[in-house]
Predict the structure.
Amino acid sequence: MTGILIRRARQVALALGIAGCAAGGLPAQTAEPALPARLGAAARAQITALMDSARAAGLPTAPLAAKAAEGVLKGADDARIVDAVRSLSGALGQARAALGPVADASLLDAGASALRAGVTPAALHSLGEAGAAPAGAPALATALVTLVDFVAKGVPPALASQSIEQLLRLGAPESRFVTLRSEVEADIRDGQTPEAAVTTRVRTNVQQLGAPGAPHPPSPPPDAQPSGA
Amino acid sequence: MSEQRDDDELTGALERATRLLRDEPVPREAWRDAVVRAAEAGPSRGWTVRPWVAVAACAACMIAGAAIASLSLGIRPDRAGDIVAAENGIVRPSTLPVRFSVEAPGAVHVSIVGDFNGWNPSGLPLHRMPDGRTWEVDVGLTPGRYAYAFIVDGRLARDSSAAESGADDFGVPNSVVLVGGS
């Protein structure tokens, strides 16, 4: 009798547990914003297809829906909205290719922003390698955000990406990039050119991190080490 | 004679019984296979949690689910200073409070739209401050770069105190906020 009661209790607990977990998980599953009602049928179908492709490729789809909503809010026509969504989807795909399969949604978003700001896919790949260790993904995401900020301030994309990569290779933590952003912003306010501000501040940071001012070369693979050394 | 026969029968029976006991029993093939399968599968994984623990755990799970649902489905703070945790509708840990503020003296309704709420115009309303001119809201954001704009009585407005986003897909530049990491 006791055994039957315990078995029943287990069944009820299991059912309630499944229901509770489903209720808890619901917001995250429905978090993807719906496409705006104002979109025409053709544009809606095209954007839905783009989102389906992105989903199948393991890319985040929420930024695509958000881009469509932004376009509608700004009164853009459907063709322009579809173009913007397609462009963002392409950038996310390129970011995935450059940063690898382990990149999460926020990292892909930051990578796509960097690409759209003018950073080349090769440079992004190099940044991804530099940020793989030891500071890890949070530092890389913040580094990419800093990079996009520098480019938006007028720093040439090549200089900005080389500077950020140098710091990543030296293991600069996330906080270092946040400070660097503030320092560069202050220098620009004080009258320096964005390029000069970034160059000077990065050089200082490199020295503080204990490395020479020259770009830090990536470590050779273990099998390339001279065996007799 | 009769006793001798009884003795012989008894001796024979004892010998047969002894032989039977000495012989290695041959199990049925189906039984043997079942035992081998069970051994390969490892120990049985029955429930090791007491039922009341399971019930308590699922109740906690339901409460947590309801809390997350209420935050994500639009329950908003009724006063300025509360933090709205929203990033594309997903509540995430490690958010930092970011205060958005705009001066709109004669406005009736002010909200904020941006990358953090999927550009949903009804998503995040601002609250009128006691001075009657300033509208504010605090939003919990994870580290990153977010483009945004205010909607003042239905009209899109840039944040004049923030940096401009630069190139824009739709020819209407946004404001940008950078949320620092740790």
